[in-house]
Amino acid sequence: MTTESITPPQDENQIITERRAKLQELRKNGIAFPNDFERKNLAAELHASYGDQTKEQLEEVKIQVAVAGRMMLKRVMGKASFATIQDMSGRIQLFISNGDTGEETHTAFKHYDLGDILGATGELFKTKTGELSVRVTGLRLLTKALRPLPEKFHGLTDQEQKYRQRYVDLITNEETRRVFMIRSKTIQVIREFFARHDYLEVETPMLHPIPGGASAKPFITHHNALDMQMYLRIAPELYLKRLVVGGFEKVFEINRNFRNEGLSTRHNPEFTMIEFYEAYRDYKHLMDFTEKLFVEVARKVLGTTVLSYQGRELDLGKPFHRLTMTQAIQKYHPQFTDAQLNDRDFVINELQDLKAKYKTSDALGSLQLYLFEELAEAQLFEPTFIVDYPAEASPLARRSDANPAITERFELFIVGREIANGFSELNDPEDQEARFDEQVAAKDAGDEEAMFKDSDYVRALEYGLPPTAGEGIGIDRLVMLLTDSASIRDVILFPQMRPEA
RNA sequence: GGGACGUUAGCUCAGUCGGUAGAGCAGCGGACUUUUAAUCCGUUGGUCGCCAGUUCGAAUCUGGCACGUCCUACCA
Asked: Is the complex ipTM more than 0.85?
């Protein structure tokens, strides 16, 4: 006994073998992958234009259509069949019968498989149950699908496969298509919003010789011709502010940042942010502006400011809360007094009880920040601006005139997550240089996330940065909110995964 | 990094006490000219994640490994 000489690839199975044979047959009989079918109508447009017409009206007007799409459902009943095809807009039913197409075409159709891409021409009509359908007179197989689709009722449910094979997820799951259409629409609305406010959209480098603008571990890469180490950007901030120095007084950029940190339901190594800067504004203006932006995005994308996130209702149309860190702590832990929260030893004691990390060298503001993160952050379900961040944690932000230990900075929290971060920009070049030097000292002391000193940036400030306000908004997290997604992977088309086993 | 749970047909899932593998969908063959996850009859399809161990015998018990999901930590 001899083994078969043809060993199919490992994931080949009987179904794929069968379909390959059908494709072989198609090749033999002509052009297996024709590209001359002219699609003239989309499913959703036909439903919108003719869905309301009666059976009789449709028979009278005799609308000729040409539709194309992937076959998702198939029902064969001897001399007549129904098929449901799906295009970018939606689905429409085809009726194929010996009487309309001739027996040969209908017989060929019976061997078409779910997942095949078809082109059909014919006349619109309504079935006796009232479903708008195409009475097919011409039917062609445009692309043979070799691999079977997931089960037609449940679709693809395995999370890993949804992420790894997003194309299958998109074919099968309406909800997945909805999420990414909302994502696209969200970015479009944001662009329009900034354009309307006379902002200039710019693109700054993704490859940085000095990573800057955030506290994070960068990805390191190498440029061959220059033989130098480069970093994927962790934030565009320093470049955008250089542009404000240059006279582009309102700029924004929507693009990816890369951070070499852990993966989680809220973190992907590459994520999308919008950063924007406007001269002659301060952080208070940014908060008002952000509220307007969020309301507009919700209204234009979802049609309402009221949304449901993981079972809880949220209204972006209500004024956002504004609290200092200590006020936020007290909101959820009213037993703490102002005196206690401003007492270093007391705060350190609380942090110890919570097993939270801190350094004995930390200033009171940083200690309060850690306590806030432990006790309040995750509870900020309704949109809340937390203001007055400690200067040592905000090396690019302008100090408060009333209290130089804090900065004119806020972070916006919604559903317990940081969604945005903004501040009045530090435009004092001497203070900026001093703060860079502090960061370098921290880096030398072992802080991997401390910033590098960017001397050209300081030089830019020395030419004069007008008083400016700047902010970054996490687009992925915003889209999670708008789509009620629990994981950031659900709003990124191709999330980072480990290599396949 | 730590913890919990999971991995069985292309897909969705069962699998009892350890006794040699099941259903539905998809596929193939047949019936059926208005179906709606069409229906009905017949039928093909398996490295039970991988490697060891225990046992007469392992999808099932034990150990290790891989991958995944969730929680947690770092982080936006």
From this structure: yes
